[in-house]
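Risk register update: the risk of archive-format incompatibility is retired. Evidence:
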Amino acid sequence: MENTISIVIGVVIAVIIFSIVLYTILRKRSKLISEQTNEAEKSSITITEKSNSENHSDIVDEEIPKKAIINEPIEEIQPSINISSKTEKEILKKLEYFEKNKGFIKKDVNLNSLSKQFNTNTKYLSEIIKIHRNKQFNAYLNELRINYITARLLNEPNYLKTKITYLASDCGYSSHSTFTTIFTQLMNESPSVYIKRIKKDVHSK
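Archived output:
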């Protein structure tokens, strides 16, 4: 009887010890698995944050040039007039004749009248002058007239005695004041000052 009791007690103690050992092992394993899971989650979060950061950086980099392009001033390109080579040459030839024969000193010369004289339209003539003379029509006409007057003042001593009113009329201006204004703009001095300076240079030689 006592042997049986001893055996039972031994078995119970063995079961208790085995249970404690098993519990300890299972607890350690559970703790290890939990730690590994936490590490994996942290790693996943870090990778996700890094990925989001990189994606955000890419988005910012892509947005910067787009914004810059929007803010850049857009240069307007004016459409050019399509003029045939034959027409262009004809207009240029007539323009050279007009310059050589001093057609610009006529008082009634303007873009419209000259276009009719050349048997063309104002757009074609204006475009040819802009391309080959680098000027708008009015600037082109004014420069021809003032160059004509200054050439005569420099090369014809007697012309220096001419009155300003006559000088204006001689190069195609109906208004004395208009002539004076344009002459001053192009030569950086009035006609009277220019003439005085030329006279002084002539006498000093």
